[in-house]
Amino acid sequence: MFSKVLIANRGEIAVRIIRACRELGVQTVAVYSEADQEALHTQLADEAICIGPAKATDSYLNVQAVLSAAIVTNAEAIHPGFGFLSENSQFASMCEECNITFIGPKAETIDAMGNKINARQLMQKAKVPVIPGSDGVIDSVEEALTIAEEIGYPVMLKAAAGGGGKGIRKVLSKEELPKHFTSAQQEAKAAFGNDDMYLEKIIYPARHIEVQILGDQYGHVIHLGERDCSLQRNNQKVLEESPSIAISEEKRQMLGETAVRAAQAVHYENAGTIEFLMDPAGDFYFMEMNTRIQVEHPVTEMVTGIDLVKAQLEIASGEPLGYTQEDVTMTGHAIECRINAENPAFNFAPSPGKIQNLLLPSGGMGLRVDSAMYSGYSIPPYYDSMIAKVIVHGENRFDALMKMQRALNEIVTEGIITNAEFQLDLITHDNVLTGDYDTSFLQETFLPNWEPESNH
After folding, report:
1. So what CATH class is 132-201?
2. Quick count: other Cβ atoms within 10 Å of Cβ 414?
């Protein structure tokens, strides 16, 4: 095991990684921007080093600054968390060149799966079903129109280097396609420095089901069951649960085996997630692979009892997987709600500022809160608005839903506005209670009829 790890992230995931390191007896180095001087992760780590100004491009995305901090503090490994540099293959390569272990898959794996067109082709070779669409990069609007005509509207235009809902456009007709093609290309160029586009048929209605996998350096790959992430707004997940109520035990097994095959096709090491879309007939299609730890990893931890961040550290340090597929059992039901500093009544506008008073649910069986917030802390306006994740585990889905209602009711925030009330209204909606929802439900059914009671 490593003696010292640098965490190249901020917020709750940095705190989460520090805690896992501490339990393994590993020293930690926090990096922070000038805006994060008072952040919790800087206080919990053994060492903290400033890596630049508030803007992420000058700090958390500054490869030279992060690597310099690791070298200066003699860190043997870097954990990138999620977002920022976590899926940057160049950064993973540079870590290797500096004899620093990148806690994640190899750079070539990140590269192979990061380009969505390449990933599609690799999955087809591995006999993993993919969504009908273009076989490679679309060079022009004319080509896009031809392919869309062949597979039938509606279609989704996607950036090859995409992620986080950027460079994606839903196209309902040939009249809409030219303008969407241009705007998606421009957005992709600005976000990823790459404007390559591809096209896929829209699976509608669909459920977004993803499978957590772990692979070690010796070719062992296992899956840890699925998560249902169908409750989304603007292609961003809002609530996740495991297991999915929408699939049978037989389908669950088949899906897990398919995910393992997908990971083996790229000799996958460390924690990763294979994302699928499921159509109304119950057929699954590969969507993408996330070559990092996910925001929603706690729901898998709750139902399997496996600490994924510790597993990441152990795998990266050269240890073989400590369990086989047969050892993995899923017990009960887990749900996660993302709590964001945003105002749902004003189109979810970010709500940074000073937290005058904060009370997060902290007790009761089967409850976990991952957060880096505290009373008196000022949320900077430069980063993601997520301030906490409330995760519950129950004997069954109904039990978990009741726990989540209780937990969300206990949240008190003064000084900032959050989406806690919105989440509470969402999980008490009939469709969510019965599990009868898909990826369009939140945006097309719930939000148009939702009326906020207050702004707190």
Report:
1. alpha beta
2. 12
